[in-house]
What we know:
The protein is an alpha/beta fold. It has helices at 14-24, 64-80, 109-120, 149-159, 174-184, 226-237, 256-261, 278-281, 292-303, and strands at 5-9, 31-35, 41-45, 53-57, 85-90, 124-128, 143-146, 164-168, 187-197, 200-207, 214-222, 242-250, 268-271, 286-289. The strands form 3 sheets. A 7-stranded mixed sheet has the order 10-9-8-11-12-13-14, sandwiched between helices. Helix 8 (278-281) links the parallel strand 13 and strand 14. The longest helix is centred in the N-terminal third of the chain and has 17 residues, at 64-80. It starts with a strand and ends in a 10-residue tail after the last helix.
Amino acid sequence: MLERIRIFSGNSNIALAKKICDNLGVSLGKANVSTFSDGETRVEINENVRGMDVFIIQSTCSPVNITCMELLIMIDALKRASADRITAVIPYYGYSRQDRKVAPRAPITAKLLADLITTAGANRVLSIDLHAGQIQGFFNIPVDNLFATPVLLEYMKEKYLDDTVVVSPDTGGVERARAFGKRLGASLAIIDKRREGPNEAQVMNIIGNIEGKKVIILDDMVDTAGTVVQGANALKEAGAVQVSVCCTHPVLSGPAIERLEGSDIKEIIVTDTIPLSERAANCSRIKVLSVSGLLSEAVRRIYYNDSVSSLFI
């Protein structure tokens, strides 16, 4: 039934691409994505894609510039090979935090990357939990921004039902935390913080009652873990009996693992939109849930031109 579908992957998250292919019952497309001796990205598509509906699985995660170039060059190669439709499946959209001007003469790099993907020849973009919803408007092609909520909730409902409070680590994530808490049957609290600079945050106070409660800090990503660790300490001081962290994208760069291992955080629940480093994979506190089922269903519906609306919950 899927004879006209072809799924390819760059080097950023081959394991997730293989899971998606297994769910759909198709083989991962044959492509050589490597580098020349001078570091230039080299792409060879080793099978016929003429007239095919092609999906490229590529999170633009670390090393960000290399994974971005792999994605762009693969799109260009497939366009020039006469693919009928090219969908860029970007589980984690890199540069998404640069979505607005925060200072004079600053770039809006999330928009620049959107322009590059469109110019390269993508016909559609499929992503999960974009850092800012307005990024969808940066594209002049259709964008499906799925939510990892169903995957996360399935696990959370087994362990976090009684005396639970969902905490937003900043005011920008309140809507996400409120929706998550409603589905979990939990109340809401907010960490009021002031950011002093990139990857730096200072907790100011806790808005809401968390004394004697199990607390879940909910965010779309954890990068250096400074915000969540500082937030967890503040929540503990305010009377929380247990603090866990739940996020979609485990960026976990720099001192993140050291900070998490040295904190009072009981558990960090993440998804496989980004593959974990070896050290992160060996961290006993990190629980990884797969979004392969969600993405494979979205790919199937896009291929058949079915509605994707029911996946936006």
